[in-house]
Amino acid sequence: MKKTLLLAGITGLFASMAHAQSNVTLYGLLDAGVTYTSNDQKQSGANFRATGNQTSGSRFGLAGAEDLGGGLKAIFTLESGFDVFDGTADNDRLFNRQSWVGLSSPTWGAVTIGRQYDSVVDYLSPLSLANIDEKGGGRMFSHPFNNDNLNASFRINNSFKYASPNWGGFSFGALYGASNDENGMSSNNRAYSIGAKYENGPLRLAASYLALNEPNGAGNSGGAVSNDYAFQADKQQTFGVGGSYAFGPATLGFVYTQTTLDSVQNFGAGSGLSTVGSSDMKINNYELNGKYSVTPAWLLSAAYTFTDAKYRTTTGDQKGNWNQFTIMSDYSLSKRTDVYLAAAYQTAGGDADRAFIAGGSGYSDSDSQVVVTTGMRHRF
């Protein structure tokens, strides 16, 4: 009897130790609502649609860590996005948002490999209201065509990432996405990025750089960037800086990004830029944003973004611009559930004759567009 109790005690001890040394967490988010679009080129008049993922992408995932001793841990994340209205995946991948494994240390930082976010998303995006995970923003706040990926419309395959520890508020990271080209062309669809941030009390600063070589490269769909990439271009480079400062319940921020595209084949079809073709394009985005906590449960946010683009079409050099105003009210019913109402207004100018707000039903049939959405989010 005593031996049986002793054996049971030892077994329970090892079980509790194993539980303490490793863990796996199931998590997720559901975002669903309805969206009004004032006009689009496919149909006359306004329209209403059932929409999901307008503020934060619906997802479920598994995240885990195993204590290897001495502060070293094995870590992983598997995450899939989907449409809450019909249950379909965002694309044909099982884990379309993230799938990576790696090692982390409080002294040396973390090294991870797999399908991951680039440094623009990791470091600069949290300062923009287009960020997919910061409360008070989302897809409608993204810059035209999400040209700088602040809204994380694509991830990097075959990637190796390093993230440093936090040294007095400063940290940095870098990523390389391999081409994996079967013909040995290492530049055909590869990516690399670097970013850094500094946080000290109410002050936040960040900078990042992303380069994509031949994204969606011919004959290499298994490269760093796959079919969720927005443009057809031989190369994309995005650089950005940003900062924010909190004044009690209010936060004021600014983000600047510049995206250059080499040998553009297609950009914004139906937007007045669809005649680009074998030319270079430079896009500047200037975002001024703010948040205000009316109460601990009620958050107001707003952003103004000015975007200008210089490009060459079959008819010569042209310039286009977009002005966008976006506001949002978010109310938390609990720590895990909130409801939101957001509205965006955009005008196109110069040689760009079509407005296009992300989350709407499509390109406008004029130089202006209004999109209004309301819905709820639940986290688990």
UniProtKB/TrEMBL annotation:
BP terms from Gene Ontology: monoatomic ion transmembrane transport
Signal sequence bounds: 1-20
Domain of life according to the entry: Bacteria
Xref: CDD domains: gram_neg_porins
Keywords linked to the UniProt accession: Cell outer membrane, Ion transport, Membrane, Porin, Signal, Transmembrane, Transmembrane beta strand, Transport
Entry's Gene Ontology molecular function annotations: porin activity
Membrane topology field: Multi-pass membrane protein
Domain Porin stretches: 13-348
SUPFAM superfamilies: Porins
Subcellular location, principal: membrane
InterPro entries: Gram-neg_bact_OMP (IPR050298), Gram_neg_porin_domain (IPR033900), Porin_dom_sf (IPR023614), Porin_Gram-ve (IPR001702), Porin_Neis (IPR002299)
A matching Pfam family: Porin_4
Subcellular location: Cell outer membrane
A GO cellular component annotation in the UniProt record: pore complex
PANTHER family given in the database record: MAJOR OUTER MEMBRANE PROTEIN P.IA, PROTEIN YDDL-RELATED
Quaternary structure annotation from Swiss-Prot or TrEMBL: Homotrimer.
Protein name from the UniProt record: Outer membrane porin protein
Organism (species): Pararobbsia alpina
